[in-house]
Amino acid sequence: MKLNADCRMRSAELIRIRNAEFGMRNLYTHSPFRTPHSAFRSGVTLIELLIAVAIIATLSAVFLGASRSAMESARAARTKTTIAKLHTLLMEQYASYMTRQVDIDIPSGTDPQVRNDLLVIGRRELMKYEMPDRWSDVDLLANPLNKPTSTAQGSRDRSTVVLRNVPAVARMYYRRFEKALATTNNDMGKVNQNGSAECLYLTIMLLTGDGEARTLFSPQDIGDTDEDGAPEFLDGWGNPIRWVRWPAGFALKSSLMTGDTDSDHDPFDPFHRDSVDEPTNPKQPPVSSYPSQLQGFVSRLRDNNPAFRLVPLIFSSGPDGIGDVSTRTDNITDPSTADPYYLDPYTWDTTYNAYQFGSTGDNPDDPDGDDNSIDNIHNHVIDNR
């Protein structure tokens, strides 16, 4: 009995094992290969690897793009901050010319209109000496080729037009100019390369801020990109920040200048002496009644370009480094280009195409003819300051 029972139990066990094996065979019938059951595999497939690489590449591109955008924004913000400082310092000095005395020789009994003409010319001459925006403004001190071909009467410095003497700060500028010449072995091309930016640096450091302007700028704000010994203020991209003292050609793009000669006339010309000539006005002294050496300057006051309020233009060329603003790099050994303003901020230069200083596009500082000034950062847009 016991033997039969053991046999039945073994038979049942064998049947159970065979049924289990049959079930396992059914489980793998979808595959032509018999694969043994294995433990969990820790590797990844090629598809999974490619997906991971694609995700990493996408995230990297997003991160780099965001990083580059953040860096550009930081450069632009730094540039705006620097230009805002320069604007504040420069405008404080610029406004002072409305009340400063102009030291000129005016004989007693001079016609009041003649006197007012001389005051306008003298004030502009003072601004030009003290706030140069090109090296030719500075070199007028020493190079006879760059001085006016005639001089006024009286006991005054022969380098001036109507001023009694050259301002002291202008002589300091000239010494810096001589240093730049010595550094470059008299290479005027190199000296003029960043002349506008270098004159801005001199004006800010030597004329404004009661001598403390340097403390407002960090070392990264200042450099000498052309290695001529004359520093410049730098924007966030490491390029010189330039300026135009009388940017009449920028009026259409400015939120600080209207260009309206009647309602927004030049505040430095309170008697509207720089206006369109009225030949039939019997009270207007004829140009021929002025000393011969001043007739050319007076004629400019009465030309067809009347005065309006000007605000100095301080600008960075932006990310592309191309400003396309007419700052006019002068050949200061050529008397015909040495004094392009002729003490008239509103003159049109006709040497190339007719344009006013501060204009953008189609000027000698825009050789390719394309206006790339759209990304410039300047002090004439409120958001830029």
TrEMBL record:
The keyword Ribosomal protein does not apply. Residues 363-373 have a biased composition (Acidic residues). The chain crosses the membrane at residues 44-66. Keywords: Membrane, Transmembrane, Transmembrane helix. Residues 257-292, 357-385 are annotated as: Disordered. Pfam families: N_methyl. It comes from the Bacteria. Residues 262-276 have a biased composition (Basic and acidic residues). This is Type II secretion system protein G. The lineage of its organism: Bacteria, Pseudomonadati, Planctomycetota, Planctomycetia, Pirellulales.
